[in-house]
Amino acid sequence: MKAKNYRNIERPYTRKEFIHGAPQPRISKYTMGIYKNDYEYLLELISKNDLQIRDVALESARVTMGKILSKKLGENYFLELKAHPHHVLRENKMIFGAHADRLQEGMRRSFGKPIGIAARVKKGEPVFELRVYSSGLEAAKEAIKLGSKKLPKDYIIKITKIAPIQATTTEIQH
After folding, report:
1. Nearest CA to 145 among 135, 130, 134?
2. Rounded-to-integer distance, Cα 128 and Cα 132, Å
3. 31: Cβ contacts below 8 Å, ≥ 6 apart
4. What average pLDDT does the segment 91-103 reach?
5. pTM to 2 decimal places
6. How many Å apart are CA 77 and CA 143, to the nearest integer?
7. Which domains, ranges and CATH numbers included, belong to the chain?
8. Taking the CB of residue 99, how many other CB atoms lie within 10 A of it?
9. Structural contact between residues 89 and 9, judged by C-beta atoms closer than 8 angstroms
10. Per-residue pLDDT for 29 more than 90?
11. Three-state DSSP class for residue 153
12. What is the pLDDT of residue 166?
């Protein structure tokens, strides 16, 4: 099967209590870096289309971004994967070649076996969020651009300047 067969949104198949042999997601971490309240910029990788992204593609993009960010910024960033893979992909395996004619059943019992897992992303939803200081903005742009090349279809990089959070204390009198 080709990857384009699983890119389009199809009917969701997520009830793992009914699926025997559903694969585990291959994503090792959903967050990287250190979360702080004083980051100055938020970069979001936003999908231009409705699509499904396989878990191996998400992990590949996360590893690529993490390598660039840790090399250039150290620990002064926070990367978060927002798209979670829940949808189980199925395939009706067909055997082609010599002496395979007795094994195929065509469309009889064609529901398929679980082969992978994918995240369903709608148009305008963020796939990754990255928080950095202004000194690391160029490295963050480079990392998120290279990470988007590991994913199917097209994406927009949205950059937002974050207002600093002011710590406030309130006194309660009895």
Report:
1. 130
2. 13
3. 78, 79, 80, 81
4. 69
5. 0.84
6. 11
7. 3-161 (3.90.1170.10)
8. 7
9. no
10. yes
11. coil
12. 55
